[in-house]
């Protein structure tokens, strides 16, 4: 199968999948977030020990040296000396997500990243590290052996690197010490927030909730928020109400948008994209010049002439005369647009330029977003 046919088949499959997804329904649970049910970000600074000579250079990483001295002094060891030198310690930043309604004593996963000039965290152990929230309070404490997925090996003539050896993870590496106070059942109303704000989708969510519960409890606040009042038959049981709401199927409305990633040549178009009547021609003048050298020498037993080199030039001109002007009628769908561009033999890079030109001509009834 040629590259052009493969590209056409791939784009046709993508269009088919987009068309199927547009007519499907999604649960409210999958397209919204409920007020108060959210993660909280935690961060901390700590030390990793036990490295095999791949830690920070205490001469250049001053923060690692001072942290190591401070830790040893808290343990009763006087380490204030100019001779302190080790390559088995590394300063790291520890991050974690505190899930909603986490209770004291529960465990969460943590990520560890080198802060200094350490080359690898493999084999290291994270010492006790407090994890702080945005308010400066300690919500968890982390410690444990690191699991490093990447590695780096270097020899005299070659080296190999796989993944990132200066990042690691500890499953269940932190214990929750403080709970985030939030009483969901005490709420008299709950805000349902759309992950992709849209007026039509928000209105459908409000209507769907009112129809399912047969009560006018949901109202549209803005394109990204639907406010739901807790009805009288759900007092103190907001969790049961939200469980009922999140299972309601909703048809999500999509704006007409074309997303272009110029660095990789990826184009994603929604099924609402429409094209007004426009004519498209695509083709470039290509001149290919090939130089080659030959050898000219006299015939055998000839008394005259010398052996010399000769130059040969081959010039080929491709004016793409097999590509013709194509006309797209008004109201063209996404499938027809892709088929028309593929018929012209247009690749992803050229297709980006054509779409931008159609938009500039005012014939593309959609928003173009360049990543």
From TrEMBL:
<keyword id="KW-0975">Bacterial flagellum</keyword>
<comment type="function">
    <text>Assembles around the rod to form the L-ring and probably protects the motor/basal body from shearing forces during rotation.</text>
</comment>
<feature type="compositionally biased region" description="Low complexity">
    <location>
        <begin position="304"/>
        <end position="314"/>
    </location>
</feature>
<dbReference type="Pfam" id="PF02119">
    <property type="entry name" value="FlgI"/>
</dbReference>
<dbReference type="InterPro" id="IPR001782">
    <property type="entry name" value="Flag_FlgI"/>
</dbReference>
<keyword id="KW-0732">Signal</keyword>
<keyword id="KW-0966">Cell projection</keyword>
<comment type="subunit">
    <text>The basal body constitutes a major portion of the flagellar organelle and consists of four rings (L,P,S, and M) mounted on a central rod.</text>
</comment>
<keyword id="KW-0282">Flagellum</keyword>
<protein>
    <recommendedName>
        <fullName>Flagellar P-ring protein</fullName>
    </recommendedName>
</protein>
<feature type="signal peptide">
    <location>
        <begin position="1"/>
        <end position="24"/>
    </location>
</feature>
<comment type="similarity">
    <text>Belongs to the FlgI family.</text>
</comment>
<dbReference type="GO" id="GO:0005198">
    <property type="term" value="F:structural molecule activity"/>
</dbReference>
<feature type="region of interest" description="Disordered">
    <location>
        <begin position="296"/>
        <end position="316"/>
    </location>
</feature>
<dbReference type="GO" id="GO:0071973">
    <property type="term" value="P:bacterial-type flagellum-dependent cell motility"/>
</dbReference>
<dbReference type="GO" id="GO:0009428">
    <property type="term" value="C:bacterial-type flagellum basal body, distal rod, P ring"/>
</dbReference>
<keyword id="KW-0969">Cilium</keyword>
<dbReference type="GO" id="GO:0030288">
    <property type="term" value="C:outer membrane-bounded periplasmic space"/>
</dbReference>
<keyword id="KW-0574">Periplasm</keyword>
């Amino acid at each position: 199968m040629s590259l052009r046919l493969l590209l056409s088949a791939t784009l046709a499959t993508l269009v088919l999948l987009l068309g199927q997804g547009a007519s499907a329904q999604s649960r409210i649970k999958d397209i919204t977030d409920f007020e108060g049910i959210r993660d909280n970000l935690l961060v901390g600074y700590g030390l990793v020990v036990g490295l095999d000579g791949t830690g920070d250079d205490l001469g250049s990483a001053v923060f690692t040296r001072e942290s190591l001295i401070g830790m040893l002094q808290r343990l009763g060891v006087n380490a204030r000396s100019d001779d302190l030198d080790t390559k088995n310690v590394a300063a790291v930043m520890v991050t974690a997500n505190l899930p909603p309604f986490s209770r004291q004593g529960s465990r969460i996963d943590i990520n560890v990243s080198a802060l200094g000039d350490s080359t690898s965290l493999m084999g290291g152990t994270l010492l006790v590290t407090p994890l702080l929230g945005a308010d400066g309070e300690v919500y968890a404490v982390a410690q444990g052996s690191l699991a490093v997925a990447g590695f780096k090996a270097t020899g005299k003539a070659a080296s190999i690197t796989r993944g990132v050896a200066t990042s690691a993870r500890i499953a269940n590496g932190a214990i929750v010490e403080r709970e985030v106070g939030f009483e969901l059942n005490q709420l008299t109303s709950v805000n349902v927030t759309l992950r992709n704000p849209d007026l039509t989708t928000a209105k459908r969510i409000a209507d769907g909730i009112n129809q399912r519960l047969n009560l006018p409890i949901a109202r549209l606040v803005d394109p990204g928020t639907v406010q739901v009042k807790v009805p009288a038959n759900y007092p103190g049981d907001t969790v049961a109400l939200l469980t009922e709401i999140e299972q309601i199927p909703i048809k999500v409305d999509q704006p007409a948008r074309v997303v272009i990633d110029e660095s990789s040549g990826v184009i994603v178009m929604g099924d609402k994209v429409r094209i007004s009547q426009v004519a498209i021609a695509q083709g470039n003048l290509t001149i290919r010049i090939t130089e080659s050298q030959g050898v000219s020498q006299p015939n055998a037993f000839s008394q005259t002439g010398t052996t010399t080199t000769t130059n040969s030039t081959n010039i080929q001109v491709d004016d793409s005369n097999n590509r013709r002007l194509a006309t797209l009628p008004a109201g063209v769908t996404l499938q027809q647009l892709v088929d028309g561009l593929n018929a012209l033999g247009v690749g992803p890079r050229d297709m980006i330029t054509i779409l931008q030109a159609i938009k500039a001509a005012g014939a593309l009834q959609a928003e173009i977003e360049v990543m």
